[in-house]
Amino acid sequence: MSTAPMLIQAESVSREYRLGETVIRAVDAVSLRIEQGEFLALLGSSGSGKSTLLSMMAGLDRPTSGAIRVRERNLAELEADELARYRRETVGMVFQSFNLLPRMTLEENVELPLRLAEVDRSDRQSRVAEALERVGLAARRQHRPSELSGGEQQRGALARALVNRPAILFADEPTGNLDSVNGEQILLLLREIQHSLGMTIIMVTHERPLAERFANRIAQLSDGRLVSDGAQR
Amino acid sequence: MKTRDLSELAVRNLREAVLRNSLTTLGVAVGVASLVAMLSLGVGLQTLASQRLTRSGLFDAVFVTSLRNFRGPRQPPPPDSAAKRESRALDDDARQQLSKLSNVTEVYPQIRFITDVRYVGKSESTSVLGLPDSSRSSGAFEGMTGKYFSSPAAEEAILQLEFAKLLADQPSSLVGKDLTLRYAERAALSKDADDEALLDAMMGSGKPGGISIVPREKTLRIVGITESDPSAGIGGFGGARVYLPLKTAEQLHVAQPDDVQAFLSGNPAKPSYMAMTVRVRSPKDVPQVEAAIKQLGFATFSLLDATKSLRLVFTVFDLFLGLFGSLALTVASLGIINTLVMAILERRREIGILKALGATDRDVRSLFFAEAGAMGLFGGVFGVALGWLIGSALTWGTTIYLHRQNLPGVKISYVPWWLALSAIGFAIIVSLVAGLYPASRAARLNPVEALRYE
Ligand SMILES: Nc1ncnc2c1ncn2[C@@H]1O[C@H](COP(=O)(O)OP(=O)(O)OP(=O)(O)O)[C@@H](O)[C@H]1O
Ligand SMILES: [Mg+2]
After folding, report:
1. CB distance from B235 to chain A under 8 Å?
2. What are the tens digits of pLDDT across the range B315-360?
3. In a shared domain, residues B101 and B195
4. Is residue B160 located within the same domain as residue B244?
5. What is the spatial distance between Cα A154 and Cα A96, in angstroms, rounded to a whole number?
6. Of B238, B270, B303, which one is at a domain's C-terminal end?
7. Would you call B448 and A61 a contact, using CB atoms and an 8 Å cutoff?
8. Distance CA B426, CA A65 (A)
9. Could you read off the pLDDT of B160-170 as tens digits, one per residue?
């Protein structure tokens, strides 16, 4: 592991929310180094700042202070457009609530990142097919999200996150809305992706047993602070 | 994002929320339609009026009379500068001179005389007028019974309906029949003419030559009966009831009331005319031509002032119609703003997802912008069609009404290309402007908050 190059380096990252007089420190001086190819699980009780930290690393939000370096580029200092490009090219995201666009078919949902990244039309079909194949939904490509089960929707979302071949996959409670069977299926897929594509995966979860089974490393947040960080077997 | 992907997404978003978007588009369409309908009415009425007025020959004509006719024999010359110029006779030399002025298209004398008209034993005294060939297209003969003169010098006559009724109970039965004019011909006397001595005795000797007045008859074929009076409108110039081709009328050499005066003033060989009409290229040339004619020493009269005020009325009319139409479009654009702002609230999550997937602020803004523009385009095209339909319906209704009144139908609404295209362009621009605020609000949406929103 120590031979792998450093991918993400969070240095004393804080994120504050101001609500009138009160200041809420959602993330409080967290420092974290993530190597390429790692599968990191972020654990913590509700409101401990997991989603906030993940959003900042995924380039959706900016830290109030501190730096997040991804391949030596500090996300906190990027222009809005560069940050959008980072999300487009380097990052894939999966959410608890799937977040497929309900008005589009599965296929169109998966094609969306390719549109945004201005990938050639001629390449798109094969890449969409490939991504859907990987999550086992090739037969459902014409279906709308409402015609899919929760597990299928999450796999579809995973295909959409993978289609641009990002270096990092962020998943915010990807199993939160699924039963244990479907949840396990998703995690198996994530591990498979980690191994076959060499992708770095950072996943927020509430379920310690799942994290212990699938992640290489578990970091725990409490009240915005990193309280433990350790490698699994 | 590429423009093609952007427009595909925009169209797909519009399609997916068909009800709401088509209602908004309909709002734009109604706005555009009322704008187009109003302006097409304005354009149509204006075209109609100016066509009729131009063809009537009233507004592109200068009426020329000799200054002499305007004062009695004992009155002193008027004290203006014109009096210093030579007071000239309106003869063929003058006609040549007038037709050489720039922007003059046609010069013709007014030939009008009162004569006896005979038809199958009936005899009526009436006023006869020579018509230049250009009056064929004046619109005055639209809907007349029979035909216009077959040639500029045909021995044919057109009767005014009221006059025709005096000659026959069934005026239309007169077409194709012959009628006879009895008139007095003016002829210059040759030296050895028999009646020279007589004339000398009458007028006193010492004059070179002289004129004779000889009664003549002329048979003309009636070719048409017209309801309107093609010469009406100018004070005193209207009121003729029998019309001949101008050339035919000229060849009759009918004795004119001022022949004697012309004879006395010393040039009996050259007949002079009571008045001439000078047609100019367009109404805007009237003032310049009129000034030039005055310079030549003639009196002039034109109806230009009437067109000026008419144009003013139409400009104000257009302005008001456009104002009401724009008001309708403003309401429509408020509809667009409303739809898009509501769409932002409804589509917060979608915007958050797009941003999470790497859409830039610009992508999101362009998407909303494109949707607004597309609604403008569809609304504009649909609105122009609708406006054209409304205009056509108005024309149709008016025509039916006019036919009931035994009048020919007219096109009161007219949608020219420039109106259609600029209405569509206007709709797109208004929609884009209406989309500015919603689009930039959507673009500024914080993705984290947008995604949290359920
Ligand atoms: N926009 C905001 N304004 C104010 N406070 C916020 C905002 N977003 C998050 N917070 C606060 O920051 C803290 C961390 O929130 P966060 O969503 O990161 O928690 P979490 O660990 O993901 O919790 P959960 O497990 O319930 O998802 C919470 O106390 C939350 O109330
Ligand atoms: Mg969370």
Report:
1. no
2. 787 788 778 777 777 777 787 777 777 777 788 888 999 999 999 9
3. yes
4. yes
5. 8
6. B303
7. yes
8. 49
9. 888 888 888 88
